[in-house]
Amino acid sequence: MDLLLILEKGFFAAIAALGFAAVGNPSKAAFRYVPIIAFFGNAVRFTLMHYAGLNIAIATFFAAVLAGFIAVGFAYHARYPIEVFAFPALLPMIPGQFAYRSILGMIRFMESTQEVAQEQYVPMIISNLITALLTMFALGVGVAIPLFMCYKASFRMTRGEAK
Q: Alpha-carbon distance 75 to 27, whole Å?
């Protein structure tokens, strides 16, 4: 395993997650915890894809489950809703490359006048679209599992509420 490559993927995901977290005007706790969750989630996904041979959707599912459990722990400790930490950390795992290729294939398909060229783009469109949709579904289901399993932790008194 190339540890430096895994750390690099996690590092850049952490930076991206900070940007996604900043958009929602979060608490200061989010800026501490979101990059950690994104780092470990993306590092696990990359490791599962490249060293365990899993496809992107399955690797994303396991990484989202891990990120969800880490977010539960941080949310309980910081006394903020779990979603504040989990969702920005998962956004760097959205499969933009596959969505882009699918849209690009659709555009080329519509521009093409030759039947042979059109037949070439249909499998590309379908393959990339299915991969993107399944990966996003895996993100949603993967993060929902810890949220539902630790449902009561979501309702722990948050900061700012009366004691």
A: 12
158: helix, strand or coil = coil
Specify the pTM. 0.83
Sequence-distant (6+) residues with CB within 8 A of 95 are 56, 60, 131, 132, 135, 136
Distance CA(85)–CA(90), nearest Å, equals 9
Report pLDDT digits (tens) over 6-58.
998 899 999 999 888 888 777 777 788 889 999 999 999 999 999 999 999 99
Maximal CA-CA distance, the chain:
70
For the chain, counts of helices (H) and of strands (E): 6, 0
Measured CA to CA, the distance from residue 78 to residue 112 in angstroms comes to 55
State the Cα–Cα distance between residues 135 and 71, nearest whole angstrom: 20
DSSP letter, residue 156: S
Please report, as a single letter, which amino acid is at residue 71: A
Q: How far apart are CA 127 and CA 132, in angstroms?
A: 9
The C-alpha atoms of residue 13 and residue 99 are separated, in whole angstroms, by 19
Check: CB of residue 13 under 8 Å from CB of residue 39: yes
